[in-house]
Amino acid sequence: MVQDLVIAIVAAASVGTLYLAAAAKVVKQYERGVVLRLGRLRDDVRGPGFTMVIPGIERLRKVNMQIVTMPVPAQDGITRDNVTVRVDAVIYFKVVDAASAVIQVEDYRFAVSQMAQTSLRSIIGKSDLDDLLSNREKLNQGLELMIDSPAVGWGVQIDRVEIKDVSLPETMKRSMARQAEADRERRARVINADAELQASKKLAEAAGEMSAQPAALQLRLLQTVVAVAAEKNSTLVLPFPVELLRFLERAQQQPTPGRQQLAPAQQPAPPPPSAAAKPQPQRHAQAPRPAPPQRPAQPRSPQQSAAATAPMPAPPPPAAVPAGPSRPKPLAKH
Question: Which residues of 14-45 are buried (b: 16+ CB within 10 A; e: fewer)?
């Protein structure tokens, strides 16, 4: 009798232990427990800690409430400006309503993943290539709104969506590189032209100052000579000032004082060359003799004045010389 009682107590304890093992559940701090009793959702969601369920009647499903990081597979698409790109992204979300995540959707992770892929393709088709490369913050916000709209009914909250990488074809990369190079070259030319303009203005101001003080140009020339000589060169090139050439040209064009220039009509014509002109031997230049002193003019008588004004008689014609035998002319001695 006692032995049967002991066996019954041991059996009951064993059954109670098994029952407790099946009914006892532990919910972690980052989890929430959703209880289904005979397939029907209980209103109370079990919090973290120790909890009990009725084995065979109630079923406990644990839902992770942590932020989940899910990579979105790379999607191929064509942008609005007809450029083929390959874009991948990453999405951060968490469950805010454990009951809705269990009841409203079969697998909320898979649903969020598919929604992110379709939204990413839609964003690619609505955007330009420049927006994908430089205006990603705006695209991230638009992608977040597109995914978060249906996810609200699933008890899921989208925290952030980031576009990770945009892959371009090699031809497009080369075209963009040439465009960037041309833009940089254009800016370099503009900057160089601006520098030349400013330098020309400063040089014009310096030229004005030097024109007011001619000695400044000579000082500048000496500074240039000093700068060239500091290099220890064997050859020194000195620039010839243009102002000196202009001074010589002006001096040549000015008439010599004390000498009157005759008009072309008043200039004496050169004598005609004679056929019998012989080259005269060159003589050494002699010093000019002093002019004799002039005597004072004496008054003339009326007879002398009349004789001076009377015309001179014509000379008699030369007498005819009889023709004789021609004689050879002596040769000129050089």
Answer: eeeeeeeeebebebeeebbbbbbeeeeeeeeb
Both structure tokens of 161 = 């969506």
Tokens, residue 271: 């004598």
Among the listed residues 254, 55, 270, 86, the one whose alpha carbon sits nearest the alpha carbon of residue 167? 86
CB–CB of 121/77 below 8 Å? Answer: yes
Strands (E), the chain: 24-27, 31-37, 40-46, 49-52, 58-64, 68-78, 84-95, 156-167
Distance CA 6, CA 176 (A): 89
User: Are 138 and 131 in contact, with CB atoms under 8 Å apart?
Assistant: yes
Q: Round to whole Å and give the CA distance between 78 and 122.
A: 10
Per DSSP, the three-state class of 178 is helix
* Sign of the alpha-carbon torsion through 105, 109, 114, 116: positive
Question: Tens digit of pLDDT per residue, the chain (334 long)?
Answer: 677 778 888 888 887 788 777 888 888 988 999 988 888 888 888 888 888 888 888 888 899 999 999 999 998 888 888 888 999 999 999 999 998 888 888 889 999 999 999 999 999 888 888 888 888 888 888 888 888 888 888 899 999 999 988 888 888 888 888 988 999 999 999 999 999 999 999 988 888 888 787 777 778 877 877 777 777 766 766 666 676 677 778 878 776 555 555 444 445 555 555 444 444 444 444 444 555 555 544 545 544 544 444 445 555 555 444 444 444 454 544 4
Identify any residues that bridge with 76 across adjacent strands, giving them in sequence order: 86
Tally of CB atoms within 10 A around 127: 22
Q: In sequence order, what E strands does 79-195 have?
A: 84-95, 156-167
Rounded Cα–Cα distance for residues 320 and 235 (Å) = 82
Q: How far apart are CA 79 and CA 85, in angstroms?
A: 7
